[in-house]
Amino acid sequence: MYDVIIIGSGAGGLASAICLAEKGKKVLVLEQHEVPGGWCHSFYIDGQRHSPGLHYVGLLDEGQSSNQLYKDLGIANDLTFFRMHPEAYERCHIGSFKFGIPNSYQVFRHKLIKLFPNEEKGIIKLFDLIKKVNHQVLLIPKLKTFWDFVTVPFRTKEMGKYGLSSLERVVKKFIKDPILQQIFYVQCGDHASPPNKIPFPFHCVLMGHYEYGGFYPMGGGAALVKAKTKRLKQLGGEIKTSTKVEKILVENKNAAGVKLVNGDKIFAKTIISNADPNTTFLKLVGKNHISKRLCKKLSKTSYSLTSLILFLTVDCDLKKYGMHSGNIWRFAKADITKALTNDLEKPLTELEEFPGIFISCTTLKDPTSFDGKHHNFEVVTLVSYEHFKAFEGLDKDRGEAYFAFKEKLISIFMVSLEKEFPGIKNHIVHQELGTPLTNKYYINTTEGNIYGTEKILKQIGPFSFRPKTEIKNLYLTGASIVAHGVVGAAHSGVNTAAKVLGVRPEELLEEKENQKLTILEAEDNTHWPEEIKKKIALKQERLAKKQSSTHS
Fold first, then answer.
1. Which residues contact residue 30 at a Cβ distance below 8 angstroms, ignoring those fewer than 6 apart?
2. 66, part of any domain
3. Are residues 198 and 221 in the same domain?
4. CA-to-CA distance for 228 and 49, rounded, in angstroms?
5. In this structure, are 199 and 145 located in the same domain?
């Protein structure tokens, strides 16, 4: 019998597993997919690696919170990250307007004032407010003493004043220029929600997370998963892939174990679900085991948008197009709110191009993955699941109509990509499209959502789902609990483990000796270790030999 069974091996599930195993608990992680990691996993098409869910991480420099988290989990030594382009780790292409977001608030602010001198006062005030609110939100979990709680209203005045406002409402209060407003909205894609829905304090935390730029792991998302599973096994934990849970066994309102799809039953003192709340309670637990109150809450719970992801490999020099390690957020028109609301209701096949796309080139973010010829893209657009309901219930192949639909969607992606990289369609080596049904099949999320519950005011903070559920010994973790994203979900995992053990989260995050995260520059190889340079050279030599033997 196990102490803890964790359903799902996403960032939250693995973080919980490590924390609990470190405290001597016998932990088993069950993953339905053939590889662990959830959204963080990587896969290969014709030898080219793609990572569908991990596109960048923030606050990774020495002394910053994500760096410290990985040290405390004991995985830092096994990780190397590349710093994305310091002058434009994030690029906004809004209509014909282009702007690069640098890895410094001070430089960011200066660039905006230079471009929009008439908005100087508003820009300064808005940046000051964003920094203050971010600090105040992060202060809340650190409250311990009675005096902390008494004084917190005086230390969180700005958060109190703007806590009920949307991002759009606050930005419009300080900024009048419509293009400048869009720059502050552009990272809403990281919530998979429009700026008129995202609570201002929640977006302040996201902007704070990337205050010093973005980083990408060497080895893609799988590198993070590999480091975590290695650590878990060192601590005596187990992980089983291709092992799908059919039911959580509930006896007298107590979670006692799980039943697998093959009929096997495994028992444990504690069950943690890394699945979203609807999947956990309605599919795995069953309505007959939950209260009417919870059932009502679930019926009113909304989830983030889902996605289409184009996995593309090309055989051209992308740097000639001006592409580098920075992401591109491309919106066809200067109205991001409309692009993420009304435009999503239009039939997809009637679109000339998607209203907004996110472009990530992993072979420039992680230069060790570049073989000297092929570059890999993940191109993402947010969509409503409604467009795919007609294909539900079909077998895995889904039929000719589904594949014709996918081909049409790929052609719509290519309209935008051709505008960014003229002639790129002539250099495609392979292309594959992941749809909301793909998300649902591999990740098992409600309607293929990518970030758990929708991050609106009534579903975050004190209104979010709690780690501890109404069923004794059943806990939740993941993107729907504390926060979404790779780091947010990991913190959720730590919080859930703390609830299981009856301690504060910081008691589980004790720094390990001799842990150090390696940070390299994606755009400058001057200080790269020789072994990494040799690794790149060897990869490129292999391709050259392969091509030589093919042509001879």
1. 5, 6, 7, 8, 9, 239, 240, 243, 244, 245, 258, 260, 266
2. yes
3. no
4. 19
5. yes
Residue where a domain terminates, one of 209, 239, 260: 209
CATH number assigned to the domain comprising residue 54? 3.50.50.60
Mean pLDDT across the stretch 160-183? 96
Q: Which domain holds residue 141?
A: 104-209
For the record, the structure tokens of 36 come out as 């662990």
**DSSP at 284:** I
Taking the C-alpha atoms of residue 204 and residue 131, their distance in angstroms, rounded to an integer, is 7
**Rounded to 5°, angle at Cα 165 from 151 and 53:** 100
CB 430 within 8 A of CB 45: yes
Q: pTM for the complete prediction? A: 0.95
Q: For the segment 31-61, what is each residue's pLDDT rounded down to a tens digit?
A: 999 999 999 999 999 999 999 999 999 999 9
pLDDT digits (tens, 9 = 90+) for 232-253: 999 999 999 999 999 999 999 9
End residue of a domain, out of 209, 229, 248: 209
Domain count, the chain: 2
In contact, 215 and 58? CB cutoff 8 Å: yes
β-bridge mates for residue 382, sequence order: 307
Beta bridge partners of 245: 260
Give bridge partners of residue 73 from the DSSP assignment: none
Spatial distance between the Cα atoms of 450 and 485, rounded to a whole number of angstroms: 9
Band the pLDDT of 152: cuts 50, 70, 90: low
Residue 260 lies in a domain: yes
Beta carbons of 94 and 177 less than 8 angstroms apart:
no
Q: In angstroms, rounded to a whole number, what is the distance separating the alpha carbons of residues 323 and 326? A: 8
Residue 64: alpha-carbon gap to chain centroid: 19
* Structural domain includes residue 381: no
Residues 73 and 39 grouped into a single domain: yes
Residue 175 inside a domain? The answer is yes
Strand stretches in 419-517, DSSP E: 428-434, 474-476
On whether both 71 and 124 belong to a single domain, the answer is: no
DSSP, res 495: H
| Residue 207 CA from chain centroid, whole number | 14
Residue 457 sits in the same domain as residue 475: yes
Q: For residue 445, is it left (φ>0), alpha (ψ between -120 and 50) or beta?
A: beta
Q: Which residues contact 50 (CB under 8 A, 6 or more apart)?
A: 42, 43, 44, 220, 311, 362, 376, 378
Residues 116 and 205 in one domain: yes
